[in-house]
Amino acid sequence: MVGFIAPNVHGYFFGSVLTGVIDAATARGARIVAVQTHDAGLLDFEDDHFWAQLGWDHIDALVVAPAAVSTAYLQAFAATGKPVVTVNQVSSGLDCPTVVPDNDAGVRAALDHLVEHGHTDIAFVGRSPANADDAIRYEAYRTAMLAHGLVPTEVVPVPWLLDETYDGAPAVRLLRERGALPQAVVACTDATAMALIEALTAEGVVVPDDVAVVGFDDIAEAAEHRPPLTTVAQSFSQAGSTACELALQALGGTPVARGLHCVPVEFVVRESCGCRTVETRIDEDPGDLSSLGAPFVRDLGGALFGEQGMTATRQDGLRVATQHLLTLFGRSLLAPEADLTAVEKSAADALRRVAGRTSSPLNAVAAVRRLADAVAARLAPGDAPAAAALDRRGVDVTSRALESHRPHVSGAVVNQHVEVQRRYHRVSTELVRRQDRDVRSLTWLRGTDVPRGCLALWDDARELRIVGVYPDGEGDGRRDEPCDVRAFPLASCDDQVSPDELTLVVPVRFEGSDHGFLALTGPFDVMEESVFERFNHWAVLLAVALDQDRAVEALRVSEERYALAAEAANDGMWDWDLETGAVYYSARWKALLGYRDHEIEGTSHEWLSRVHPADRGAVDRALAHHLDGRDPAMEVEYRLRTADGSYRWMITSALSVRDADGTATRLVGSMTDVTERKQLEDQLRHDAHYDLLTGLPNRALFLERLNQSILRTRRHPDYRFAVIFLDLDGFKVVNDSLGHQVGDELLIEVAARLSSEVRATDTVSRFGGDEFALLVDDVKDVAGLPDVVRRLLSVVSVPVVLEDRTRTVSAAAGIAVSASGYDTADEYLRDADTAMYRAKAEGPGAVVLFDTAMHARAMARLQMESALDQGIAEDEFELFYQPIVRMDTRQIVGMEALIRWRHPQRGLVAPNDFLPVAEATGHTRPIGQWTIGEACRQIREWLDVVPGFEACTVSVNLSNRQFWDPDLRPTLRSALDRYAVPTSSIVFEVTEGVIMDNQDVAVSFLHQLREEGVELHVDDFGTGHSSLSSLHELPVGALKIDRSFVQRMQTSPRSHELVGLMVTMGTRFGLDVIAEGIETEEEAAALSRLGCPYAQGYLFSRPLPATEATALLLAQTAVTASSPRE
């Protein structure tokens, strides 16, 4: 069996090549399977995507047309040891026989002819893009020019346009740039030659008088061109037969040379070279036979098809037939003794192909006789015997072409044509409508001229399966059998194939959908394009039908999945038809409100009327913004009234379905009950702002209210407030002697007494331990404020019964009032703290109002600022590193970089002693930049010396100022690049407060860092004021639970529960959780029981200098390496 593979397997070029292959194979008793590689018969550029090794098990030799498959495909087939022969295209990377026209001889003949005309300035016009033939033809031109002692030119390209034509104008411009147009041009193809002639003519240049032109190929239009084109004729069918013969010889064991095998060509002289045609040399009349071509095409076309039936394909066939008839008639008169058998056969075959496409083939007889009369009148005017002989020749050739047609069956021919059209219309309709029929059964081939068919489709595993066979005897045509792609089409059908039949394989592929292959077997005329257009049309319809079946099945599965999901989900589903107003509510939606299925009607009022009045505006805005396109999706959180009159929190999410104009026609969504989540959020928010032991506002809430008071002083200069710090005396004795529980009871009592003595507008806060702070609002009498505070302290000092014993505590207080002129909360806290310590020094119950005498502390701050400037300039800072470990293995997974200041006089200064001042003065920016660079340098060192450190990270804390510094990202990138550190090795830690100050902008910036590969952790989690709804939007990888929560776990059930909630919340959001400040094994054990995966604290290691941290890492590596492996 010989395989023929081509982009298309029909038409003038590919059909002619395949005709030659079939003729040669039939003569040797071989069968043919033709594989089409392109979709729907479209000829495009080379299809490198066709990879299916169709029929390789059965195909013994392969003939390959141009632009069919890739070189890799051919190499793979050649690797099987079977012969490969290519036609008209040399395949780079594959050494095999290639059949080409004798380009060298044809070009040499053309150039020799032009030289005989006396031309010496001869240019070569190629095409762009070029192919292998172009290079061979140019080399032949160059060699011939040199042989004549002439100077060859470079190739002048004629570009290929998007409308599939050539544009000769650029080539003419390039030719003129030489100074003068050449005397003659050799064109690489007829198409480029005719494009050049048109461009020359448009500029007033006369061909051949001013410039002679010769083409190559002898296409049908060449003889009818003006002037008729002198060219080199080649036979595509001969190329096909030669290729097949070479393949069969190689298959039979006969050595076949690799490389080019040239098919003879013929130089055809017409007028574009400057000659007068053979016909015009007989007659002095300057007219020629080619002028009879166009009228005869119209005459014969009208006779066979009518004016409405002249398609482009039919016109091509008519031109070919006309050319052959003119050649036959001209040679009959000019050389009556010559053997014209081959010429007459070619004319009869061409005429048969044209006439066979019509219901009135016998109309060709009169038209051909009219052409014979016209030729006789042109070449032999007045010669009656010559005219009569030519008339008989016309009748003979027409009879030979129409020997299967007789006048008495012409009516049947018409009826047969109509019936064929009806049958194929039925097939197309059946493929489109299908109804309950399975198109894969191929039963739709019944009633066509296709005797046999087989359909193979890809399954989900990309394996081929036979799904349809026609005919199938008594069966329904359906199959479901595996089939190796190399075995398709099935060899079992070979015995049914007659010698004149062809097996054609067409891809069932369209618009990106690749379903498989359709094999059709029958006596197909490969030169009859309408038949193959029909086959390709079927393949397209089949692909579309299969796409529709796949889409319907996917829709069914999707609907089924949706139904099951809706039934199983906790969400309530709804579907609102915006055009009719009808709303579908799922049973679950109704159940969420406490209603049974029949108790809710299908209107939007049932939903919107139940929305809490305070939330109705938000719901209406969310609906409007989504429906008008401002928001791509709708999501709104609100309260909804239930059947018992209570309200529950819901989140509704929805998407709209829009028509072609973009107008929303449906709204489909879900509703989720988030009441428990909201309650948890509220609890977490409350716990984040209130002391868990006393219920008083904590430091964060106190600072928030203090900042509000500061802002108020700026708006109202007469407004005054005061910050009071209280520190209990004797609390430590109670706590140490009676235990933490009794100490907690004392703190609760003190908190209650303080709260009972202040106004509703004042704030009492517990800062931690036995420290309390008061924010006294709207102070009218600053001078009398100390007396007010003393009375408050006297209430605190009233004895309290603890453990059946009476205990007395006292307190000292420091006051800072807004009249002091400070602007920031830290300044007030600092001065109140200063005053408190002054009061404690004076004794229990003392109250001190901050005044200018205490300004020394402020001066100390100035000194600190100056020292910081010097420390930055002198590089006095260094980083310590505290390990972060896995709780289960105690293995180090990361290091937190902690800044230290090695002061020349004070020694090692802890960060709390200088960072607050640095943050307030802006020094954190240069310190932070240095920290990032030093951390990256240390990472590089550890990557080089610590085995396995690639799995560890180093965390760097970002202060508020540093986080918002626009140079943060450039600083990081510069440090990473400088030390060649991967982005994944560094982690930034940011506190909740930094993020929540401007959440939207912060989240955007965090996303930018995350996109660059920087991991982000939320530090001191639980001390800020983020919510669950906002936390899940943050692009962070871990939460670090503040040590204040960890330290209270053993003494406060609420703290224990809150830490558990944080761990659970982080896990649910897919975040790692790191507990800070672990100091005891009890704390570690409690965290392990809660599922906390990572921890950090003095229990594992204090912060270490870099050298000691390196030693610790190396020690861990050594222990790990020495541990036995399973």
Automatic annotation (TrEMBL):
Superkingdom of the source species: Bacteria
PROSITE patterns: EAL, GGDEF, PAC, PAS
Domain (PAC) ranges: 634-686
Residues of the PAS domain: 558-630
Domain GGDEF: 719-852
Pfam families linked: EAL, GGDEF, PAS_3, Peripla_BP_3
InterPro entries xref list: Biofilm_reg_signaling (IPR052155), EAL_dom (IPR001633), EAL_sf (IPR035919), GGDEF_dom (IPR000160), LacI/GalR-like_sensor (IPR046335), Nucleotide_cyclase (IPR029787), PAC (IPR001610), PAS (IPR000014)
Keyword DNA-binding appears in the UniProt entry: yes
Keyword terms: DNA-binding, Transcription, Transcription regulation
A GO molecular-function annotation: DNA binding
Location of the EAL domain: 861-1117
Gene3D superfamilies, A to Z: 3.30.70.270, 3.40.50.2300, EAL domain (3.20.20.450), PAS domain (3.30.450.20)
Entry protein name: Diguanylate cyclase/phosphodiesterase with PAS/PAC sensor(S)
